[in-house]
Amino acid sequence: MQLHLAVVLLCATAGLFAIAGAEDPYRFFDWNVTFGDIYPLGVRQTGILINGQFPGPDIHSVTNDNLIINVHNSLNEPFLISWSGIQQRRNSYEDGVYGTTCPIPPGKNFTYILQVKDQIGSFFYFPSLAFHKAAGGFGGIRILSRPRIPVPFPDPAGDYTVLVGDWYKSNHTNLKARLDRGKKLPFPDGILINGRGPGGASFNVEQGKTYRLRISNVGLQNSLNFRIQNHRLTLVEVEGTHTLQTTYSSIDLHLGQSCSVLFKADQPAKDYYIAVSTRFTSRVLTSTAILRYSNSAGPVSGPPPGGPTIQIDWSLNQARSIRTNLTASGPRPNPQGSYHYGLINTTRTIRLANSAGQVNGKQRYAVNSVSFVPADTPLKLADYFKIGGIFRVGSISDNPYGGKIYLDTSVMQADYRAFIEIVFQNNENIVQSWHLDGYSFFVVGMDGGQWTTASRRGYNIRDAVSRCTTQVYPKSWTAIYVALDNVGMWNLRSEFWARQYLGQQFYLRVYTTSTSLRDEYPIPKNALLCGRASGRHTRPL
């Protein structure tokens, strides 16, 4: 079996060496995805396990590594994994969302061939189909700098993945059925920290040493606040960007966001609470983990530390304080500040407004009034094989027009190498969180009220943080700059998972007429073909 697997993986990757570059290391992973009983909040429910683990195993890699991940779908339904924050340079076929990649059929396998090209930082993977994310199947991704690239802080004594997120006691199938009936989801039942409920997870430290936590909000609905009793958190990295090293008492992490903090174990030796709580909710959920000193003199005592609850200004001010460390190296030795995004003229402004409403008596969510419905064939495959009638470029406008919500397979076209401005306008009274696959973007501004052209006068055009997921506060706007340097079909979506499932997403088709490998890789030889692409051929072996 092991020999057979090795042969399969070798065949899958042999044709890629000329593209990815044989000098970059290869890391191989073999994952079996199953259903299994889990008890994170004390009741039995069906979870999605990877190699028997909930959450799934971490992926450890180094800049430019090639990751060969063979996923066996042992579920009784189709399955896909997407890689949040991994840019899939020139290769959106591997993105693992339904607009780009055919689902892995039950009982079959598919080998993802990824390269973490010119990336560092903290990210995560998750199941993208149906409502699988509510059952698990997620895990951390870390991309370390290459050995000769300087990192702007000493190596920590330990480096921990911390996956936090709100959670339901109901099985994912029940939640999906509720959404399919056109109903909203109730408030979640609790918060998990690394797959465990209150007091279930622990992290061991030695007094006097400094540790790194890579924290990701993998939840479904709520922004979260993270804090450690009697310890300060120094932010050092956000989704692949080294930040100014600002110290906070707690950190807000919105849906789909990741960051790295350092903290020093400099308190009297005992156990301390790690607390995570919901933000901007009338009812506050809190969960805890334990920070345990190796020479601990006793258990945690008293209540967990309190944090901010409904204060928006507190969160907005913290978000504005998160800035790029211009002198630090990123994935390459040159300083992160050597790319002067503020000196580049934007060629297009796209304004996106989220909305909620009813269509045919069922709850839907929309972007610029269009509520996305998946086609019967992945959009990227339809594009590659030139299959008509699956999507229409321009099926979503550049600006909100305020009309009623309607259903469509929304695709917006953009020119390769354009430098564009996107404004997210949130006229609703809840926080939004937006993610763009395939890219990292500069968060140049955010404020309350309606965005106008005069809002640009307040933009940060020097050291805005570059990331792939950004929040938009209630009745507010957020503006980003994006250099469209990655050809492909890229999902732009809400990270509020029920809203994403019920239509708050679309695809950005970054297009060029060029067929050069310098601009986009060909379709993978092992690509699964489904829908109206079934029976076609990828390319000669």
Automatic annotation (TrEMBL):
Pfam families: Cu-oxidase (PF00394), Cu-oxidase_2 (PF07731), Cu-oxidase_3 (PF07732)
Top-level taxon in the UniProt lineage: Eukaryota
Record key words, sorted: Glycoprotein, Signal
InterPro entries found in the cross-reference section: Cu-oxidase-like_N, Cu-oxidase_2nd, Cu-oxidase_C, Cu-oxidase_fam, Cupredoxin, CuRO_1_AAO-like, CuRO_3_AO-like
Keyword Coiled coil part of the UniProt annotation: no
Cleavable signal peptide: 1-22
Residue stretches making up the Plastocyanin-like domain: 33-146, 159-296, 376-513
UniProt cross-references to PANTHER family, sorted A to Z: MULTI-COPPER OXIDASE (PTHR11709), OS04G0561900 PROTEIN (PTHR11709:SF387)
Protein family: Belongs to the multicopper oxidase family.
Protein name listed in UniProt: L-ascorbate oxidase homolog
Origin species: Gossypium arboreum (Tree cotton)
